[in-house]
Structures are given as structure tokens and as C-alpha cells.
Amino acid sequence: MTESPAQTPAGHPVLAGREHESAALADVVRRLVELTVTTTAPAATTREAVRRLEAVADILERHVPDPPLPKTILSEPVDNAAGLAARMPFDNVIGRHNPLALPLDLEFDPPRALLRGAFTRAYEGPPGCVHGAVLAASFDIVCAAANIVAGLPGPTARLEITYRRPTALYEPCLFEGQVEAQDGRRIRTVGRLLQRDRVTVEAVGDFVLLDHAQIARMSERTR
Q1: Distance CA 190, CA 58 (A)
Q2: 131 in Cβ contact with 121 (< 8 Å)
Q3: Which member of 47, 65, 110, 112 has the lowest number of beta carbons within 10 Å of its beta carbon?
Q4: Example GO molecular function term (predicted)?
């Protein structure tokens, strides 16, 4: 689906004037996360790295607002993948500015929502495989995005995950989500994960339809 830049809402206000620098910071910390779970540096080298990183953390901590700003801004309707990602820059799954996120790439392909990416060692559960909780979080996002594609946004009420086979690290993943049924305010959305054209995980979720005013109030409560 080709999306017009004119349709993409503005991003998170906390990134105004510093979006590039924030993304670079997230990339560096993301690299540190990966190195933390893979390095075998000697004790002295590790101590020196900790000392330097603590100094960097002290610098950044001086600029944390009190109370902290919300991670997600959904006070206005969003109808495309770029707009949704821009409003969720610190999300744990698709957040470009959150080093805990891979991040996965979000795409709207009506009637589906898609997530793409290849998980690295930091997301390992069983040896050589992606952690099941990481996959569940990814399905929560792709199913919620599918609801937006269908014009039926709302929070998750239930999410059931069925693991068919292991999902390998470093292999391209394709998550698909699509609304299956609507019964009043209750939305049933299904998803699946493919690697090399084989289904490794399936998901079924129930979501509660909210109008824009209700979603805006939820967003305000996180401020």
C-alpha cells in the first residue's frame, strides 16, 4: 500500500528538533543490549565500560521531565502505518526510538496489517529461537494495527497464542493480522507468523471497539 506523506500525522512532540539524535541514541543502546548478552569481555574491561556508561546515563538523566511524557500519542485518528509508527516511537515492538524494540517494520496492506523483521540474539528464548513472549507482544501490535486498518480501533481484551513450531533467530519474520469478525463492540482478530513460507505461530485476539473520544481520553490518562 502506498501512503501519501500528506496523510501522515505529526510525530511525538518529545522528538521535535531531536528526532535524528534520539534515533541514533536508540541505535547505540540497542547495540549495547546485543553486546551485553553476547560479549565475553574480561572483568577489567567490563568495569571500565560500566564506569563510562554510568557517566553517560548521568548526563541523560538530568533531562528527564517529571512526570515523564507518555510513550504513545493517540489523541488524533491514525489511518496509515507511517502515522501509527510516528505516534508510537517508544513502543516495545515497533518503536524506532526504544532500544528494547528490534524494531519491527509496520505496513498496512488492507485488509491486513503486517510486521516484518529478523530477531537477533537479544530476543532469544530457547537456543537459537525467538522468545515466546517477544512473539506474543508482536502479535498484540499487528492485531491492534489490523483493527485500525478495518476502522475498528480499541484495546486488547484477550490474546491467545498457539506455537506451532520454533521461530528461528536471524530469519526473516512476517507477521500478518486481519479482522475476522465483529459482534457489537467486540472485535475478533486473527494473526499468523511465517518464516520461509511456513506458519510458526498463530494468534486469536478479542478487542474492544472504542470511538476516537474514548481513545483520546485513554491517551490523556497516561500523561
Answers
A1: 44
A2: no
A3: 65
A4: hydrolase activity
d(CA 19, CA 12): 9
State pLDDT tens for residues 137-170.
Answer: 999 999 999 999 999 999 999 999 999 999 999 9
Q: pTM value?
A: 0.89
Beta carbons of 193 and 201 less than 8 angstroms apart: yes
Q: Which of 24, 9, 3 is nearest to 113 (CA)?
A: 3
Task: Please state the domain extents for the chain.
Answer: 1-223
Going 194 to 132 to 122 to 191, the CA torsion angle's sign is: positive
Alpha-carbon span 157 to 189, nearest angstrom: 11
SS3 labels along 85-144: HHHCCCCCCCCCCCCCCCCCEEEEECCEEEEEECCCHHHECCCCEECHHHHHHHHHHHHH
Kindly report, residue by residue over 44-85, the tens digit of the pLDDT.
999 999 999 999 999 999 999 998 888 887 767 788 999 999
Peptide bond preceding 111 in cis form (omega within 30 of 0)? yes
Classified as helix, coil or strand, 214 is helix
C-alpha cell at 106: 509496520
The CATH class of the 1-223 domain is: alpha beta
Task: Residue 34: name the closest of 96, 105, 119 by CA.
Answer: 119
**CA trace torsion 70, 212, 10, 65 (10° rounding):** -10
